[in-house]
Amino acid sequence: MNEMTSTQQFIIAILTLAFTYLIPYVIKIIFQIKAQQLANLKIQSEQYKETIKQLCVAAESLFKEGHGEAKYEWVLDKVAPIIHLPKEQLKGLIETALIETKKALAEEWDKLGETKPPTQ
Question: What is the H or E stretch that residue 101 is in?
Fold first, then answer.
């Protein structure tokens, strides 16, 4: 009675094939899909950052010294309709973009928003 029926042998053969070929293939496809989603998210995030950087520069140019909260609210009001993310995520993107923009523009950043040209 220890002999397997042909049905049991067939099931074992199918399971062996599934574990050997099918399941690894499905897992590989799932990982490829997730990798593509992450790549798309990164591209989208970079596009968001560039938009936010431009808005940060515009806010710095429009407002005089100080008014940090007003500048932030202005950027947030402009970016919220474009980038549909929760406010906390937008805040993080704005802060990151602002830091990168200040670093990239260095001395030029301080000249933005001045009402008169700098003296030589």
Answer: helix 87-105
The widest CA-to-CA distance across the chain, in whole angstroms, is 102
The H or E element containing residue 33 is helix 23-62
Amino acid in the structure at residue 116: K
Under 8 Å between Cβ of 69 and 96: no
The whole model's pTM is what? 0.52
Tokens standing for 11? Answer: 């099931």
User: Rounded distance, CA 106 to CA 6, Å?
Assistant: 77
Contact 110, 86 (CB under 8 A): no
DSSP 8-state class, residue 65: S
Q: Which residues in the chain show pLDDT less than 70? A: 1-2, 64-66, 107, 109-120
CA angle at residue 39 from 57 to 81, to 5 degrees? Answer: 40
Distance, in Å, from the CA atom of 10 to the CA atom of 16, rounded to the nearest integer, reads 10
CA–CA distance, 8 with 1 (Å, rounded to integer): 13
